[in-house]
Amino acid sequence: MSDDLYENGPDDELMISNVFIFEDCLDVTFRYGGGCGEVEAHLFASVGEGERLPPTRFIRVGFKDDDDCEALLVYTKTFDLTPLRSGAHSTILLQLEGYDEVLEYSY
């Protein structure tokens, strides 16, 4: 996890439509305009956890779509949440950029 990647990593436009946590995985479904090339999606998180309990981590999907096509596509990506675990707590809150609800990750 890196504040630099959280702030400056790939950030092509996407619209998150569904999110859920199952065990240690975060599934994010989003729509984007494209269809002619490869895409990359990564989960970036801020390093700090905030001061409230349970701790809150700010996360975002870093998305890179290197094509000029404009078809509206739906993509689901699964991310491993274990790197976000806090040693002192068994639950953290995740605030995903572009998604209104706060997610609770218990481990």
Query: For the largest beta sheet, what order do the strands appear in spatially?
Result: 3-4-6-7
Shape: elongated
Order of helices and strands: HEEEEEEE
Rg: 14 Å
State the helical fraction.
Answer: under 10%
CATH architecture: Sandwich
CA-to-CA gap between the ends?
A: 18 Å
* CATH class placement: Mainly Beta
Number of continuous helical runs: 1
The strand count comes to 7
Describe the structure.
With 107 residues, the protein is mainly beta. Helices cover 6% and strands 52% of the residues. The chain is built from one helix and seven strands; from the N terminus they run H-E-E-E-E-E-E-E. The strands form two sheets. A four-stranded mixed sheet has the order 3-4-6-7. A three-stranded antiparallel sheet has the order 1-2-5, with no helix packed on it. A hairpin with a 2-residue loop joins strand 1 and strand 2. It is elongated and about 45 Å long.
Q: Characteristics of this structure?
A:
about 110 residues; Immunoglobulin-like; four-stranded mixed beta sheet; three-stranded antiparallel beta sheet; 1 helix; 7 strands; elongated
How would you summarize this macromolecular structure in one to three sentences?
With 107 residues, the protein is mainly β.
Secondary structure blueprint with pairings:
Blueprint: H1 3-8, E1 15-22, E2 25-34, E3 39-45, E4 56-65, E5 71-80, E6 91-96, E7 102-106
Parallel strand pairs: 4-6
Antiparallel strand pairs: 1-2, 2-5, 3-4, 6-7
